Amino acid sequence: MSYSDLRCYQYFTHLQAQRMKRHLRDSPTLTGVTITGTQISSDTTWNTANIPIDDILVVKSGSALTIGGNTTVKFSQQGRLIIEPGARLYLHGKLTNNDCADTWKGVEVWGKASETQQTSGGIYQQGWLLSYSGASIENADIGLQLWGPDAAQGAGGGVRGVRFIGCRYVSEYDPPSPTDIADYGYGIFAHDAGFEVLPRCVSSTLPCETYARSEFRGLGYGIWLGSEKFAHIAHTVRQADFHDCQIGLSNSGVSGDLMVLNNFYLGRPAGSSFPTRFGVALGNNLNGFTLEENIFTNADPESGSAVGIWAAALGGFNNVIRRNTFIGLTASNFAFLQNAEATIPPRGLYYDCNTNQNSERYDFLVLGSIKSEQGLESGIPPNVTYGPSGNKFAYTGSPDDRDFSNTGSSVNYYYYQSGTDEEPEDYSGIIPTERQFANPCESNYCAPTCETPTEQTQRKQQYHVAKSAFLSALADYQTAVQAENPELAAAKSKLAGYHRKQMDVHAYSIVSHLLYDTTTFHRDTFRLWLGNLDTYGTRISLAGDYWAAGDTTSANTVLNGVSTAYTLTEAQAADFQRVKYLFGNLYGKNIYNLSQNIIDELEVFAADSAGYATGMSQTILRLYGRDYPPIAYLPGEERGQNQGGKKTNSAAPPKESLRVYPNPANEEVMFDLQSFKGEEDVQILVSNTSGQVVWSYAGTTDTASPVKWRTADLKSGMFFFRVAVGDFVGTGRILLHK
Fold first, then answer.
1. Which pLDDT does position 376 carry in this prediction?
2. What is the pTM of this model?
3. Distance CA 355, CA 393 (A)
């Protein structure tokens, strides 16, 4: 310790001092008396040009610190700024690292989950940070953490309705050995948290005419948000620009998105070798969102594939993607896995009034399911029909089905025969149908709270009117089917679909407005209307809401009613059992401090290619440093190209798929090989954690039923499987739970 670094310390090098302080801080005995930091215990203003903070800066409850516009506060590598509950920081200047540190820890805004976000009698209940034009937080590991100190102790913060207005999120960091997209950083990371990304008005007069847009640049994820509870949380991203982000916005399991008027310039962060870029990635049980009037542009055509909107496993709700523009992309819209319900009337993902220009390959690519009727329900009941979709095709892609490629169930696609660029010319898996009238394609999105309480009351009445009409039309449809009258059955099905769509529109509007109501919000009312969305996925969301509130009895009641309320496919039924298992196994546990055994179980589910249990597990594991980017597989491309190193557990699906279920298992495990065509040799090996083979199978793919592994003679534990079919090899883990 004889070497002295005079820039920072008189007697020890900065690394030696930091090491000593880290040990002091980590000691439960010493930290309370040795690491006190700089404390602000009364209203204070700093205007000095440069202020060094050696360790921790704490703004105490009841106090306010103002940092002037010409002031730079510099922190050591272990330094951080804490805003306690009831404290405020008014930031006009800069928070950054000192000369001896590459980074610092960042700002923590602490709060209390049990307290309101509003002031009470002029007293602040939560920590508050107000950042003004020209302020910046630079070179921090986590720029701004909106909770603390301990989530397990009810720590809150401003995690509902946090507003980021005209902010810039810029990364110039090039990680030395990146293995995942997440290594390039997040602009906003929101777990079970609501927020608003909005532009800043720079007009001198009102109403505002000129805005400074928010900006996300050079990041792995511009914005990531997720919830293992499949929560409905108010969040808005409006008038933001995304430049050179590997993934602009990724949403896993959070309904209620409002994403409008954004620009996505699809490039890559500096130094990134991950080729596939995504504008928006939506997945895992989304029951309603608004995704309209955004522009997606391929900003780097030489850097691999560019996907505009990736939608996967959204569920059966009537979700709509409309009025977006796609320029020069590999695939403008990519639908993957199940995004619809094969019901009468049909429900699911619908594309409306989108414009494609200069596409490289696909305007629409569907490797899964979407709503079987791609047309706008129109007409005056009872004379209802499907109107034109209003999408415009580029006609420039390279495959034979470049306009609309659908590998799933057949879809009826409706278009205006006199509309410019509206007729699909090169397609597969759709049945184009002409219409003599146009889709008006008007701008009609509603940003809650855009309706008054009176209008919302009318919505509730309209919902019940539509529901009554829907049930009547559905009964008439069933009568027509029994009477073997296909023409009448088709007419009644369209009429039922019209009223079902109206029910969804009204119910979702009510749910959305309830989410933004921070003053009179009533949870029972919210749960009532959440249930009125009426999908299999909504029931899981409702159970998740009860689960989050500690009401396991109601959560189990909701889950136990799923099998009688909905007809599930075999795959859905297996996945549903895993969802129930996860809810039960995670209840009462600190989601941020799980045991290694539970993490191992979650990784089993996360490695699957589909299912809500997969999404739940991946969302939780992201809190532990894992990364699960959208599956990058495009027909004709190398599989798994966006997957990084050992931390990434998602894999791109081959054309042939392997399903292994149930997992966790009890008495037997099924290896389903039926999607493999022809007769090929099959070898299956299952081994324990010591590498010992406990079961093997050799056969061919011509079997009509899944291969069974009976596990009655084995105890609970983790097992590993390897399946080889021709040149395909699949591996994974199975958890036996007895």
1. 87
2. 0.84
3. 7
User: pLDDT (tens digit, 9 = 90+) per residue, 27-67?
Assistant: 555 544 444 578 999 999 999 889 999 889 999 999 999 99
Residue 689 to residue 685: CA distance in whole angstroms:
13
Enumerate the β-bridge partners of residue 735. 718
Query: HEC profile for 486-533?
Result: HHHHHHHHHHHHHHHHHHHHHHHHHHHHHHCCCCCCCHHHHHHHHHHC
- Say which residue the tokens 């496993």 belong to: 313
Measured distance between the N- and C-terminal CA atoms of the chain, rounded to whole angstroms = 56
- Rounded CA-CA distance 373/415 in Å is 12
Give the pair of three-digit tokens for residue 617.
């597990």
Work out whether strand 214-217 and strand 168-170 pair parallel, antiparallel, or are unpaired. Answer: parallel
Partnered with residue 350 across adjacent β-strands are 320
Contact 93, 132 (CB under 8 A): no
The per-residue pLDDT for 652 is: 38
The bridge status of strand 64-67 relative to strand 255-260 is unpaired
The whole-angstrom separation of Cα 88 and Cα 67 is 11
For the chain, what percentages of helix, strand and coil (3-state, to nearest 5) are there?
20, 35, 45
* CA distance linking residue 566 with residue 542, whole number of Å: 15
Sequence letter at residue 181:
I
> 84 to each of 88, 192, 733, how far by Cα in Å?
8, 21, 44
Contact 511, 530 (CB under 8 A): yes
Each residue's pLDDT tens digit, 595-610: 988 998 898 888 876 7
Higher-pLDDT residue of 661 and 509 is 509
pLDDT of 30: 53
Write out pLDDT tens, residues 270-310. 999 998 999 999 999 999 999 999 999 999 998 889 999 99
- Please count the residues of the chain: 738
* Amino acid in the structure at residue 17: A
Q: Are 552 and 545 in contact (CB under 8 A)?
A: no
Identify the pLDDT of residue 650. Answer: 36
Q: Which residues of 295-330 are buried (b: 16+ CB within 10 A; e: fewer)?
A: bbbbbeeebbbbbbbbbbbbbbbbbbbbbbbbbbbb
Q: Which helix (H) or strand (E) holds 222?
A: strand 221-226
Report which DSSP code applies to 648.
Answer: B
